[in-house]
Design a protein that fits this description.
- The chain is an alpha+beta fold and 115 residues long.
- The chain has a single domain, classed as Alpha-Beta Plaits.
- It has three helices and eight strands.
- The radius of gyration is 18 Å and the shape is elongated.
Length: 115
């Protein structure tokens, strides 16, 4: 799956807005997406470093309109913890030379409409 298919939309609630200060962002994701796929999609879409991903399967609720009864669909929620203090990566190349990673990461997601 491509990252745009994995991350469906951000979940904006009072609780999720309070978690943004801790570096935790909440997204509605595809039901079949794994934690690794979610982490890679968030890193690619928002250019941040993901530390941890927690997922929750949310069951649909019973709804009633007049005499008709139905159920909202089940969905999957992911709470993503990003690195708020990204450091440059140092690694050893062949021959024992030190090299720095040239990839820069952001410390927050500005596109998240809850901020």
């Amino acid at each position: 799956m491509i990252p745009e298919e994995i991350i469906i939309k951000p979940v904006i609630t009072e609780k999720s807005n309070n978690m943004v200060q801790e570096g935790k962002y909440t997204f509605k994701v595809a039901k079949k997406a794994t934690k690794v796929e979610i982490a890679n999609a968030v890193e690619k879409l928002f250019n941040v470093k993901v530390k941890k991903v927690n997922t929750i399967s949310v069951k649909g609720k019973e709804k009633r309109v007049g005499v008709h009864q139905g159920k909202t669909s089940d969905w999957k929620k992911a709470i993503v913890l990003i690195d708020t203090d990204p450091q440059e990566n140092n690694y050893t190349k062949k021959g024992g030379k030190e090299a720095k990673g040239n990839k820069k990461f952001k410390d927050s997601i500005e596109e998240f409409t809850g901020v």
